[in-house]
Write a structure and sequence with these properties.
This protein is an alpha+beta fold and 327 residues long. It contains 15 helices and twelve strands. The strands form three sheets. It has a five-stranded antiparallel beta sheet. Strands 11-8-10-9-12 form a five-stranded mixed beta sheet, with helices on both faces. Strands 1-3 form a two-stranded antiparallel ribbon. The longest helix is centred in the first third of the chain and has 15 residues.
């Protein structure tokens, strides 16, 4: 078998630019530049690229060495098993002194499932690791991390920075040691960043859900609820119908919302509870909830329809469904 790709097509600048544009989305999704270049190179010159047999040998040996260790064996999942089997057979059949290349279509990849490592705080963390074709002799492995399915770029970035000083070396066990040493802190900044992004430009409000709330003076219990809210200077709005919703907004507090829940029960309308939710400040303003808008209404809760509540949610349909209690 000829292990070299013979007579590759001549370089075509126009085709390179076309391939570059076609694969540009890859970088937006976190794939490294070497992987992007790999894809473009493969499109221009054909489906195979050469991989040095010495790198293949080291990649295979690194994975097998860790699989042989009981503490790591269950945590490592090879996600390109056919390629691994092929490389393992190839390096076994070719002498170590022979300098040859293998034609390959993709890079070797694997997953590290941290729940199998018994690391406190990392049960939901999964690392997706890719060995570039010139790893480990010419590059380090590429790492993408997800915690319970959500990308945590901070972890991948920290590991990439940590591995820079180990260029030319096998990295997988270094990654596992780093996780063990940093298990209590490696996700903290990512979690804080996600939380801060989720609540940026939003204020904490409180939701009280009722089986139904009927509008009109003939409905005595609901009228008493409106009067109690005005007497307690509760800020927010009320959505009539099934379900009925009361949205409590600042400057009213969680304690105010809980007191109003007690008042509602005394009136005979029992809410499901008091649930905290962050709503966009701009949406609340545009929806006319609280603040000066409520003062102009004489301190009454705003009568809302679904469109008003959608505006208060900033047009976010998922947030609206959450407020309505729709799963």
């Amino acid at each position: 078998t000829n292990l070299h790709q013979s007579n590759p097509a001549p370089f075509n600048k126009a085709k390179f630019s076309q391939a570059r544009r076609r694969h540009a989305w890859i970088t937006d999704r976190g794939v490294c530049w070497p992987c992007l270049i790999f894809s473009i190179h493969r499109e221009i010159y054909g489906r195979h690229l050469p991989m040095d047999i010495s790198d293949a040998r080291r990649q295979v040996a690194e994975i097998i060495a860790l699989q042989d260790q009981p503490k790591y064996s269950h945590a490592i999942q090879i996600t390109t098993p056919a390629l691994f089997d092929r490389l393992e057979k190839a390096v076994g059949n070719i002498g170590s002194s022979i300098n040859q290349t293998l034609p390959v279509k993709k890079c070797l990849t694997l997953k590290v499932n941290c729940h199998e490592l018994d690391l406190d705080g990392l049960a939901g963390l999964v690392l997706e690791i890719e060995f570039p074709l010139d790893y480990p002799s010419g590059s380090t492995c590429q790492i993408h991390a997800a915690d319970n399915g959500k990308a945590v770029n901070d972890v991948g970035s920290k590991l990439t920075t940590y591995l820079e000083s180990f260029a030319g070396c096998e990295c997988l066990e270094l990654v596992l040691d780093w996780l063990s040493d940093n298990s209590s802190t490696c996700l903290s900044s990512s979690t804080n960043d996600i939380a801060s992004n989720d609540t940026a430009g939003k204020v904490e409000c409180y939701i009280l859900r009722y089986n139904h709330l009927l509008s009109g003076p003939e409905h005595k219990k609901e009228k008493s609820m409106v009067d109690a809210a005005k007497k307690g200077k509760l800020q927010g709005g009320i959505l009539w119908g099934t379900p009925g919703i009361v949205v409590v907004v600042p400057p009213s507090t969680e304690e105010d919302a809980k007191e109003y829940a007690v008042d509602s029960r005394d009136i005979g309308k029992r809410p499901d509870g008091v649930e905290s939710v962050h709503l966009p400040e701009r949406g609340l303003e545009e929806g006319g909830l609280g603040g000066m808008a409520q003062q102009k209404r004489g301190g009454k809760l705003k009568d809302m329809d679904t469109a008003t509540l959608r505006t208060a949610c900033g047009g976010d349909e998922d947030l609206l469904r959450s407020v309505l209690g729709i799963k």
